Amino acid sequence: MQTLFRNSFPLRRLGAAVGLAALAAAVGAQAATIALPQKYVKQGHLVIASDATYAPMEFVAKDGKTIIGADVDIGRAIAQQLGVKAQFVNASFDSLVPALQSGKYDMSMSAMTVTKKREEVVDFVSYLSAGTSFYVKTQGGPDIRSTADLCGRSVAVEKGTTQSDAASAQSAKCKAAGKAAVNVLVYPDQNGANLAIASGRAQVGMADSPVAAWIVKQSHGEFKLTGQPYDTAPYGVAMPKDSGLAKPVQQALEKVIASGEYARILHKWGITQGAVSAPVINGATQ
Question: Which CATH superfamily hosts domain 131-232?
Answer without folding.
Answer: Periplasmic binding protein-like II (3.40.190.10)
